[in-house]
Specification:
The structure holds 3 protein chains of 3 kinds. In chain A, 25% of the residues lie in helices and 34% in strands. By secondary structure, chain A is α/β, with parallel strands linked by helices. In chain A, the strands form 2 sheets. In chain A, strands 3, 4, 6, 7, 9, 10, 12, 14, 15, 17, 19 and 21 form a 12-stranded mixed beta sheet that branches. A 10-stranded mixed beta sheet of chain A has the order 2-1-5-8-11-13-16-18-20-22. In chain A, helix 2 runs antiparallel to helix 9, helix 10 packs across helix 11 and helix 11 packs antiparallel against helix 12. By secondary structure, chain B is an alpha/beta fold. Chain B is 21% helix and 36% strand. In chain B, the strands form 2 sheets. In chain B, strands 1, 4, 5, 7, 8, 10, 11, 13, 15, 17, 19 and 21 form a 12-stranded mixed beta sheet that branches. In chain B, strands 3-2-6-9-12-14-16-18-20-22 form a 10-stranded mixed beta sheet. In chain B, helix 7 crosses helix 8. Chain C is 34% helix and 27% strand. Chain C is globular and about 55 Å long. Chain C has a single domain, classed as Rossmann fold (3-Layer(aba) Sandwich). Chain C has 10 helices and 12 strands. The N and C termini of chain C lie far apart (52 Å). In chain C, the strands form 3 sheets. Chain C has a 6-stranded mixed beta sheet with strand order 6-9-10-3-11-12, with helices on both faces. A 4-stranded antiparallel beta sheet of chain C has the order 2-1-4-5. By secondary structure, chain C is of the alpha/beta class. In chain C, a hairpin with a 2-residue loop joins strand 4 and strand 5. At the B-C interface, helix 7 and helix 8 of B face helix 3, strand 7 and helix 4 of C.
Chain lengths: 464, 449, 278
């Protein structure tokens, strides 16, 4: 177990548990039926869940995946916790402890300033949700996923589980069986959502499993930017976060999906994220991973229509006891598709970062272009970095490039900054922020500031 | 065939052959040891990371059987060998092997007088030092198969401080016109501290179906310098699974150059372990695939000691429905301070239907290192073709010029100039004959619709 | 000798109503120009006027789409020909930024071009090597570049000298020089201009001088390469033509009289959804 370090992880408090429904630990058909019942789900969804549960049980873990995974006891996890009896659209209506948590996290303040809509998930359920009224008038649907299953079945049934089928991998199967919460967004043709929509995911209970499920559909020519953040208390035993995120970018649309993952160091974060981009659509994953014990996550874009484009900008930080196994996957299935992957990783205090990525070009994806750049910064002698980029090119008229570097913070750089009065930690923080700047500057200002602050916190008290 | 090798599989492959092969007692004992290890080995599968993208699942050992007697007749490939030897020019020694048997050794007196020793197993009363050591880390069912059925071994030793002026040439011919011959050449090169030498190896066969599993082990003492050139020109019926491993001592320098042109499925594992402070390795390769060929390149740059340097450049081109695979690893071990490694893989995909995979990996356990890799897969640059067209050069000629140019910077670094010229001609000939020579075969650009 | 060269007299390059697009956007809106052997014409214009498009379209770059018009050399339509056929017909392009061709020496390219044009005599290794060496001496190009890969590790000035050398050897009838002066210091500019100028002088009877279309943003080149005619290209059309005085006038007044002020790219704000790398 990692040492508790409340001083360092700033979001690690926990609230008193006072839940509407907290069943026993463990995974079984009974639990799945029970939660589906509480949610009053249609029969097709229960069938979907039970089918997925069977797949989860039958499916072996991929060898490379298993190599990094600890012996996770799937029976020692809470699969469904319902914290409140109903969803609210005013923060004041939340129980005090939950409300205070979100206030400490700064979510209501952010909503007032620069968000078009907010979803806040606590344990398994979305407890707060609010959408800007003008967006609703334009036909933008932004709800939690459970509500969408009830209220927008025609859209949900068309796309749910189609981008990431339950059998895709063992954790996608697990999520499909026990999913709860997450966001649903549908943006009608031509509608451009001018401000980000945000979701915040909070795990509070020990041994919690959070399995949210997000589905975003941008119809033809639509634009949307979705931001998710996450945190959890520091406990001495493990929690599991295993989300499934499906994006559908219809022709000419644009989806930007930003994640600032700051789980506490007892959370296993195993997430499947995949987008489908049709003709001339653009999907961008901006993926910041700073927390968790182990993150394994490879956002992908399947470029299905001509001139579709995909981009992954990823920053990973691994400190003491942390493993960040992240990357991206681009699958070029149509002509003139383009993709870019920029990955920056930082390892420190024995942290372990891995870039694991794949660019695949199908025959017929003429003039496909892809560029991958991975830079790793290793801050001390105990830390480790790996780079594993796979390139599979089955089309002559395709150009695929990959570049990578590994470096350390130069003594000269440090000396120069420290001679101007900075401490070593401050200087290192500045250098690290400079290293990831190409990615932070793509973030909306408020997130960029938050991100730089998080990185600086990680540097403090660690060197010298 | 799959899973654990069954006694029946090995029996079908070469029952009794291993134990009946000639040689000194240490070699017989080595084969016996390998046979036992083989009996509990598992053939590799494509699902294993090291064999991803390979064609190992297609290998049917039962379709091959080992060559058990030294071929009596000159090999049908001798004409090709003569032109290669002419291209190499002056040499300090020549070893000719056929079917894995060392048949002819001729070393210049100027070298032997300095204590340089080049010989087959017949001349070696004791097991040569380091034999089998260098490949131990890469051992698998196929290296054990080679050890169990290899009839001979070429051992080349250069004593401390001795400089061999001209290359020593080792020619491996499959040498059998029998369908399904399996041949296991094995070469060990040991350079004492400060020794300097150049080794050139040629691997050839006819067009018959054959299985060739060559092992090459190189041990460089402190301050030694070796240039190693390997030219693989097997026929189109050959399955080639080659292993090369080197250990590079303090301040030693190895320059390794590989040209992989032949074979139906040709896989080469090139591993270099920099175990001494300040050692350097340079790993260069060109590979070319057309028709239904697969060129499969695996590399390891193991930096164990501080201040070690390595540079790897592998360049390949595939046409028709050929495939190429490059996977490489730079591994910076903890303690390899100030080590510096680079890895470059460039691939040209010349035809619709051709396919190239490239996986350049880094595994860095030491922070005080410099490390970079770059990899690219793409067609011939259409801007280069347009530029040459503005000079009045027709597209098919421009394509050939650019493709030769693509390889030329590496060919120019081949350790033996005569080999560079030989390979340039060999590549040009491949481009001038067959499918690659068809107008516009290489590119869709530079020609108006 | 090809038929074209056998009848080599004074030639005419005629561009009529040339319209062309890049990426679906029309850049040239009908360009008319006529150029005869031995003449030097300058095409000047502000950034974005279509100067570079004109040079690429004349040579048949695959990235440009011809929407209409014609380009004829002594009555022979060039627009239907492949790039190398235009070159063989006697047109030469010295691009603004010559492409590096790794591993391919200049001599191989010139030899391949001469052989393809049926000029085998000139392609003989000794003959070609001698001519290249002579030209390099005149142009001031270090001999090392004659054996090196084409344009690789060459400075801007060296690349332009290498272009001029190829121009001299291939001896086309018309040369399009796209920003020949970019990247050149004063000495290099003088050296290449002298060589181009010499090419414009008619040789023996039946060997007319080179016709030059010099595309340039600045007047600097024209001080060295004295033009017979100056054309002003703005927004894809020739808006004025005149004698050398026109270049002087442009130097004083700029293109403001002909063009809208150029829109500063920086003034257009970033797309709120635009990623850095999109």
């Amino acid at each position: 177990m990692t040492q508790l370090d409340l001083g360092k992880y700033q979001l690690g408090w926990s609230d008193v548990e006072d839940y509407v429904f907290k069943p026993r630990k463990g995974l079984s058909e009974e639990i799945v039926r029970e939660m589906s019942g509480i949610k009053s789900e249609p029969a097709w969804m229960l069938k979907f869940r039970l089918d997925a549960l069977r797949r989860f049980t039958d499916k072996p873990m991929k060898a490379w995946f298993a190599a990094k995974m600890p012996d996770l006891d799937f029976q020692d996890i809470y699969y469904y916790i319902k914290p409140t009896d109903k969803q609210v659209d005013a923060w004041e209506q939340l129980p005090d402890s939950v409300k205070q948590t979100y206030e400490k996290l700064g979510i209501p303040q952010a909503e007032r300033k620069y968000l078009a809509g907010v979803t806040a998930q606590y344990e398994s359920e979305v407890v707060y949700h609010r959408n800007r009224e003008d967006l609703e008038r334009m036909g933008v649907l932004f709800t939690d996923m459970d509500t969408a299953v009830r209220e927008h079945p025609e859209i949900v049934r068309r796309y749910f589980g189609r981008i990431i089928p339950p059998g895709d991998n063992k954790f996608a199967a697990l999520n499909s069986a026990v999913w709860s919460g997450g966001s649903f967004i549908y943006v009608p043709p031509g509608v451009k959502v001018d401000m980000p929509l945000q979701a915040y995911f909070r795990i509070n209970a020990e041994n919690m499993g959070q399995f949210e499920r997000t589905l975003i559909i941008a119809d033809e020519g639509a634009q949307v930017h979705y931001v998710e953040g996450c945190s959890a208390p520091v406990y001495s035993s493990d929690s599991l976060h295993s989300a499934v995120v499906e994006l559908v970018a219809l022709p000419g649309s644009r989806i930007t999906y930003t994640t600032i993952q700051n789980w506490s160091s007892n959370v296993y974060n195993l997430v499947t994220k995949r987008a489908r981009a049709d003709a001339e659509a653009h999907v961008e994953w901006i993926d910041g991973n700073i927390g968790s014990r182990l993150t394994m996550k490879y956002p992908s874009v399947y470029l299905m229509g001509p001139k579709a484009s995909g981009e992954v900008l990823s920053v990973a930080y691994a400190g003491a006891g942390q493993v960040q196994d992240t990357g991206a996957k681009m699958v070029h299935c149509a002509p003139e598709t383009t993709s870019t992957i920029i990955s920056k990783s930082i390892s420190k205090d024995g942290g372990h970062t891995t870039y694991r990525g794949k660019v695949h070009v199908d025959e017929g994806a003429k003039h496909a272009k892809s560029f991958v750049r991975c830079d790793a910064l290793i801050l001390d002698e105990e830390s480790v970095s790996e780079t594993m980029p796979y390139m599979e090119v089955g089309e002559r008229d395709a150009s695929i490039g990959h570049e990578a570097t590994v470096s350390k913070v130069g003594d000269d750089q440090l000396f120069y900054l420290m001679s101007s009065g900075l401490t070593e930690a401050q200087a290192t923080g500045m250098i690290v922020n400079g290293f990831i700047e190409p990615i932070t500057r793509t973030l909306p200002m408020e997130y960029a500031v938050e991100w730089s602050r998080l990185i600086e916190l990680q540097m403090e008290g660690s060197v010298g | 065939m799959s899973g654990v090798l069954q006694a029946s599989d090995v029996a079908a492959f070469g029952e009794g052959v291993s134990s009946s092969l000639p040689g000194p007692a240490w070699l017989v004992a080595r084969r016996l040891e390998a046979s036992r290890a083989l009996a509990v080995s598992t053939l590799p599968r494509e699902t294993e990371e090291q064999w991803r993208y390979s064609r190992i699942d297609e290998l049917d050992l039962g379709a091959f059987s080992p060559v058990s007697d030294p071929p009596a007749e000159p090999a049908p490939t001798s004409g090709a060998v003569e032109s290669f030897l002419a291209a190499v020019g002056a040499r300090s020694g020549l070893v000719r092997c056929s079917g894995g048997f060392v048949q002819h050794v001729d070393v210049a007196e100027s070298a032997t007088s300095l204590g340089v020793s080049v010989m087959g197993s017949a001349g070696l009363a004791d097991r040569p030092e380091h034999l089998g050591e260098l490949l131990a880390d890469r051992a698998d069912a196929l290296t054990r198969l080679a050890d169990a059925f290899s009839p001979d071994v070429v051992v080349c030793r250069v004593p401390a401080g001795v400089r061999v002026e001209e290359p020593i040439v080792v020619v491996h011919e499959v040498g059998s016109e029998r369908d399904g011959a399996a041949v296991f050449p094995h070469t060990l090169v040991v350079l004492g501290p400060g020794a300097v030498a150049s080794i050139v190896e040629l691997l050839v066969s006819g067009d018959e179906r054959c299985l060739v599993v060559p092992l090459l082990e190189i041990d460089l003492g402190d301050g030694a310098r070796l240039e190693h050139t390997s030219v693989q020109q097997l026929g189109r019926g050959a399955w080639h699974l080659g292993y090369q491993a080197s250990r590079i001592g303090r301040d030693a320098v190895m320059r390794s150059f590989l040209a992989a042109l032949g074979g139906e499925y040709a896989r080469q594992v090139t591993s270099s372990a920099l175990t001494g402070d300040g050692g350097t390795s340079e790993l260069l390769a060109v590979y070319l695939g057309d028709g239904v060929q697969t060129q499969d390149m695996r590399t390891f740059q193991e930096h164990v000691a501080p201040r070690t340097r390595s540079e790897l450049v592998f360049k390949g081109a595939v046409a028709d429905t050929a495939r190429s695979v490059y996977t490489g690893l730079i591994h910076m071990h903890r303690g390899a301070k100030r080590a510096d490694a680079s890895q470059t893989n460039r691939n040209l995909v010349l035809s619709e239907g051709a396919h190239a995979d490239s996986v350049p990996n880094l595994d860095i356990e030491e922070n005080d290192v410099r490390c970079s890799h770059a990899s690219a897969v793409g067609p011939i640059d259409s801007e280069q073709l347009f530029y040459l067209a503005t000079r009045g050069v027709p597209p098919e000629v421009a394509e050939r010029l650019v493709l030769l140019g693509f390889f030329d910077d590496l060919l120019a670094r081949a350790p033996v100039p005569g080999v560079a010229a030989y390979l340039r001609a060999a590549v040009a000939e491949r481009l001038a004959t067959g499918v690659l020579a068809a107008p516009g075969a290489l590119s869709s650009t530079g020609r108006r619709a | 000798m090809t038929a074209a060269r056998a009848h080599r007299g004074a030639s005419t390059l005629t561009i009529a109503g040339l319209r062309a697009a890049v990426g679906g956007k029309e850049i040239l809106h009908g360009v008319d120009l006529e150029l005869r052997s031995g003449e030097v014409h300058a095409v000047m214009g502000p950034n974005g006027a279509g100067k570079s498009t004109l040079s690429h379209v004349l040579m048949g770059h695959p990235g440009y789409e011809v929407l209409g018009g014609s380009v004829t050399l002594d009555g022979v339509e060039l627009l239907g020909l492949a790039t190398f056929e235009r070159a063989q017909a006697g047109l030469f392009l010295a691009p603004q930024d010559p492409v590096e061709v790794p591993g391919v020496p200049i001599s191989d390219v010139l030899r391949a071009a001469l052989v393809a044009a049926g000029r085998d005599g000139e392609a003989m290794p000794d003959t070609l090597a001698r001519r290249m060496s002579d030209e390099a001496g005149e142009i001031g190009l270090a001999p090392a570049f004659l054996v090196r890969a084409l344009n690789v590790d060459a400075s801007g000035g060296e690349k332009k000298r290498i272009e001029t050398l190829q121009l001299a050897i291939l001896a086309p009838r018309f040369a399009v020089l796209d920003e020949l002066d970019s990247g050149l210091d004063v000495d290099a500019l003088r050296a290449v201009a002298r060589r181009v100028e010499r090419a414009t002088v008619p040789g023996s009877p039946g060997e007319p001088g080179l016709g030059v279309l010099a595309i340039t943003h600045y007047r600097r080149l024209l001080d060295e390469l004295r033009p017979d005619m100056v054309h002003v290209l703005v927004k894809g059309k020739i808006v004025a033509s005149g004698g050398p005085d026109l270049a002087d006038e442009l130097e004083r007044t700029g293109y403001a009289g002909y063009a809208e002020p150029e829109v500063a790219v920086a003034a257009i704000g970033p797309d709120p959804f635009g990623g850095l790398f999109s």
